[in-house]
Amino acid sequence: MLLSTDPVVYIVHAQEASLGGFREGTVHSEQAVALLPRRTMYKDVVTILSRSHADRNVYPSAGVLFVHVLEREHFKGEFPPYPKSGSSPGDASNDPITFNTNLKGYPDRPGWLRYIQRTPHGDGVLYGSPTAEHVGRPTVIEITAYNRRTFETARHNLVINIMATEEFPLPYQAEFYIRNMNVEEMLASEVLGDFLGAVKNVWQPERLNAINITSALDRGGRVPLPINNLKEGVYVMVGADVPFSSCLREVENPHNQLRCSQEMEPVISCDKKFRAQFHIDWCKISLVDINKVVPVYVTRPDPGTGVLPEFGEYNPPSESLRSRDYFSDFLVTLAVPAAVALVLFFILGYTMCCRREGVEKRNMQTPAIQLVHHSAIQKSSKELRSMSKNREISWPLSTLPVFNPVSGEVVPPIHPDNYETTSMPLMQTQANLQNQITIPQQRPSGKWYP
Q: Alpha-carbon distance 94 to 402, whole Å?
């Protein structure tokens, strides 16, 4: 069920007062068509914030920021009141609702129109700046609301009729980068009015309007870390009818350009008028005079009608085609490689099996002395292998004392002949040996004791 309520249009005016002189005039129950002739009543049109709901016609101007708020409160009435289990029916009003917007008949929105909704419990916002190319062509936007709890959907249409005006776009345009704002915060009429008031106080134009607002993420910026209340940043483009003030041109002097190249803050005299609420990166400010911009015309090829030219009727081949003989193809692809492989196999087999010299021929061609040496080496190796199998031998006498240095008698063997020496080391201490012989030590008195 669609609600047939009259649209409410908000128009922000710029007065001749200072920063606090901005006010918001609200025109209730006024048809959008009737709004067009009344625009001349206002001296400065800053932007248009449309809160008209679905199935409505809105009339933004080319070159002026357009904002359309998708209010959850309106779409809640489109869903049946299914209460949550164990709760009262009134609790169902806080259901999470998300929106999907697209150009009717297409999967996405027009290039100039953007959409943002931070959480399912917040309102969605359509915003953008239409250009003169879209003037005179109604743009139908399909808005689909999804109730994430009950999975109900509601679809409405928003018809955007872009109007052309002679006073827009304004010739002098400045783009500011605000570091401490997100795009949805900047789209609020109060915040945008405060910013335009600060710009008007610095620039002093007769007419001033917001042209476009872009998130820094759409310009390649990084998503900030969730610490210290960091923001994404937002680019705000404004236009005026007078040249840029001396304060805005201070960023172009060589000293400030040098500070920007060294990643230092430039010295701007009017920064204090913004610092209370907006932290502006003056190194990223852009000043454009569209009267001095040379237009570039790109010739596009004619897309044509999209219909292929007439080539006549299709004539398929006749059924009386001659059969093709594939025997020659078989010989080339299979028989020839197989024959070559077979020849190579026989050559390799003959070389390995039939061309061996043999042991007798090798011995005939080897000198006799070399054969004797080879035979002796083999015999010695076999003898050493056989000796290594029998470990039942005595310890070498060279590792033991041969005679007693005092008495001069011969020392008997330290172990019997049947002593197992397989696991004994070659050199071992005499303290662990059997039949230990005590060698007398010399006394200080010069006498020997046994």
A: 110
